[in-house]
Amino acid sequence: MGSSEADNNVRPAEKSLDFIRTIIGEDLKANKNDGRVATRFPPEPNGYLHIGHAKSICLNFGIAAEYGGTCNLRYDDTNPTKEEVEYVESIQEDVHWLGFDWGDRRFFASDYFERLYQYAIELIRAGKAYVDSLSAEEIRAYRGTLTEPGKDSPYKGRSVEENLDLFQRMREGEFPDGAHVLRARIDMQSPNLNMRDPTIYRIRHASHHRTGDTWCIYPMYDFTHGLSDAIEGITHSICTLEFEDHRPLYDWFLDNLDVPCHPRQIEFARLNLNYTVMSKRKLLELVADGIVRGWDDPRMPTICGLRRRGYTPGSIRSFCDRIGVAKKENVIDVALLEHAIREDLNRRARRVMCVLRPLRLVIDNYSEPGVEELEAVNNPEDPTAGTRKIPFFPRTVYRTRRFQRAAAAQIPPAGARAHRAAALFLPDHLHGPGEETNGVRSRRSTAPIIRIPSIRRLQTFRRRKLRSTGFPRRTPSGSKRGFTNGCFRWRILPPSLRERTGRRTSIPTHL
């Protein structure tokens, strides 16, 4: 890549750069990696992606796009007991839905099983790996703690020939699960527990969703991750902060093996949302226990759940861009995510009306025969969306749930004004139960102003019917303040459609 082409890949100076983009910009200026930028998104196919994964997707694919690089989609499929083809397909669908494409760069860690096995042989021959026959509990005990050093396994002194023989027999399926493991020979006294002779291969007699029963030994994530990055020519391996302590091990494998390149691992803080379950394991429990109706339940923070709830790809990308990339753990208010979808829909969504709990309103002085058509704007934020015609009858139906609730509870909102979520709005003052209120002026969305001369609370709602007077102009003559008490949503109830439809409406909430 020439210098002029590399300069084009650097983001404009006037834009604020996060620490990851700053690192990449410095690497490009130094012509590191021959001016290439190659990232990857490496999900485990053991569940559906959630909003936390969306941040990583947007970051990795976004950086590749900004700097004219590439981003691979690579599945870390090294645990056959928890992986399914369903999860593989759902991940691809979610990444595509968010607006990103990996082209011909879809890979699986299982593509490299033979090559990883040969890397393990290389470590054994160099005396840097050995077969250990301790049980899992014994390995944990020998490992030590944060305050106590570990101690060597009694099997650490096995010869290279014996280790090669045992490892070959492990591959051939001669031993049961847990009989042996292959461990890296590093330092049991290291203050970093990840460097205390970590396990790099274990026996697992399970059918793999891609390789079937070809393998009965599977590499561990720490061994697979860095080597897969190197095989694919990744330049910047971006992962979440919990892998910061694993970086020395990531570098150790790359330094001690003959690999094509040495990617740089960079860690960032994962996404944490308040009032939101962000653990894939706990989400799986909710699905398995029938607490929710599948991974795409609208209450779930999964990408497919958010999609079903009505979120758009643009709103999620905008949210991920706004929260930025940090090095320190933090918690984001879920209200910011909700604001992102409102803002996105506000620009693109057509305005429509729906009545969940109707209340009939009769306009006494409305004498126009037949049906009158009123013009409504489809989207006030988008003039190109045009308008639509709405038929208007002398009898209309209004959504009044909030009005009923407030009146029954005798809550007098001081100076009540229009609220987008409400349907019919209260006057400035309310009196005691059973008394009549002063007249309420209210403007129906898209329609003329009406005046409800009196409302007998509670009794009125039992009858589910109100009477009102209509004004021919937008502002009623004689109005002291020149505006209405509120605006409420309405729809027409033609005689042929007055029967209940029996449709069910679900309003999802947070988990």
Question: In words, what does this structure look like?
Answer:
The protein has 511 residues and is of the alpha/beta class. Helix content is 30%, strand content 16%. The chain contains 15 helices and 18 strands. It has helices at 3-8, 19-29, 51-66, 85-97, 113-125, 136-143, 160-171, 221-232, 247-255, 280-288, 303-309, 313-323, 334-348, 401-408, 459-463, and strands at residues 38-41, 70-75, 106-108, 129-132, 181-184, 199-203, 217-219, 236-240, 264-268, 358-363, 372-377, 387-392, 395-399, 440-444, 449-452, 465-470, 486-488, 490-492. The strands form five sheets. It has a seven-stranded mixed β-sheet with strand order 17-14-15-16-10-13-18. Strand 2 (70-75), helix 4 (85-97) and strand 3 form a beta-alpha-beta unit. Helix 3 crosses helix 12, helix 8 packs across helix 9 and helix 12 (313-323) packs across helix 13 (334-348). It is elongated.
Features:
about 500 residues, alpha/beta, 7-stranded mixed sheet, 4-stranded antiparallel sheet, 15 helices, elongated, disordered N terminus
Task: Summarize it.
The protein has helices spanning 3-8, 19-29, 51-66, 85-97, 113-125, 136-143, 160-171, 221-232, 247-255, 280-288, 303-309, 313-323, 334-348, 401-408, 459-463, and strands spanning 38-41, 70-75, 106-108, 129-132, 181-184, 199-203, 217-219, 236-240, 264-268, 358-363, 372-377, 387-392, 395-399, 440-444, 449-452, 465-470, 486-488, 490-492.
